[in-house]
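tool_call: predict_structure(chain=1)
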Amino acid sequence: MSKKAETSPSTGGARSASRLAAVQALYQMEMNDEHAQITVDEFISHRLGAVIEGEHYADADEAFFSDLVKGVEKRTAEIDDHLAGSLAENWTLARIESVARGILRAGTYELIARPDVPTSVIINEYVDVAKAFFDDSKPGFINGVLDRLAKIIRK
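tool_result:
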């Protein structure tokens, strides 16, 4: 996990903090082959709103965080189908770096399952999450993929 992402959680509101934590949780789940419930419980008990290595992590909306992580796990096949269809012909989802994949999965889940959240908010929030992790072109890539998906999912 990048030091930049670890030091960025104090900015934004509770839902922004939930999105950042959800991406971190999805990364952890993938790296450790963990199930969502175990990871969600760990994050709620030990990370959300905590002080870790001198940095205060913003209080997250625990219900929203839990919905994101568990929702991505439950709907991974559907989410990945959407993502695979939105990538360039020579790209596969497996080729995308794992944190970026987590960002795309969480953003796609919100586009599918959270009609209460405006499309522009979802895209902007996940571009901001990408900026917390990456200094390269990945935030623009995340923006492009989520924008394409939004036009399909939220016609």
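agent: The domain at 11-153 is CATH 1.10.940.10 (N-utilizing Substance Protein B Homolog; Chain A). Proceeding to next step.
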